[in-house]
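Bit of a strange request maybe. I'm writing a small parser for structure token strings and I need a real example to test against, not something I typed by hand. Could someone generate the tokens for this chain?
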Amino acid sequence: MVRKFDLIKYKPLERKFLLFRWGLLVVALAELIRFQGSFTGPFFVGFFIALLYNLFVSVCIFSKDTRAEKLILLSLVLDIPVYTLLMAGNVELLNMLFFSYFFFISFHGMRHGILGLIIAAAESVASLFITSFKISDLFVSVNIYMFSLLLLAFGFIIVFEVISLLNISQYQFRKAKNQAARDPLTGLPNRLLLEKSFQKAVSNYQRTGQPFSIVIFDIDNFKKINDQKGHVFGDKVLLVLARVLKTNARATDFICRYGGEEFLIIFYGCGLQDACLKADKIREEFALNSYFDKPLTVSAGVCLYQKGCSLTENIEIADKALYAAKTAGKNRVISGSRFGVDLFHKEA
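Reply from user aminoacidic:
Good idea to test on real output. This should exercise your parser:
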């Protein structure tokens, strides 16, 4: 699998691996201090190049310039040759740091997927075989080391890829599930989450005794608005009402697009009178909205949770109250119960 490089996601990984790159230089420097006489010109050339390379990569990784950050992609083809050049300057150092190829191959496999794994592995083989021609006693051991190294790196990356695919699948599943539960126009939840929110409110009522209310809002004459103004304008009307609802609801309340031009709110910990006041405030704010060239109105049906009744039964009560508001002239709030409906009168 070829993974599109995600700089934001992999930048922390780049910074951690930068410590490994500098660590190799520190080890090489420690060896230089211990065995000054055994190092030749090629080692110092390699050390100087690796030092400049590390500085270049460090600047790119920590730079806020996106163009500089993209240059760290070059490390896919430069890491292994640069550090092979460093280690080839001394046989003992090459033997001691041979394990570092596993980290280079694994890192680029994680960062670039199978493509990075293949490139890093191929470069490792080529670099070590070129070195082994200069150092004849390494030629046989390189084959054994390289075979073991590649098996280990491939196994590591396969596990990493499987885990990545599982994480991607889980993320896509959660994303699809979340999108399916939301209205694409307003971004509000749809009816799929309504039952869960209702059960949450019922559980809270049973535990604390706090009441809650269900309110259904319906835009008056919405079909006429769509016919006269068009569906684009109708969508804007829906968005305005959705914004007014969000503005007047608390973070703990549940709002959803119930269907068409209908919206539903569950006001947690809210009695009938308070719910009617909130609904009436929403009605007034929507009617006063300056976006429309003429006032548009909304009607609302309110239902205080009826103990022992299901979600469907409570919604039926709120729906009957809403129907009563429509038949009474629209642009009003009416509450309902199992015993009938009642027009809401706001006290002065």
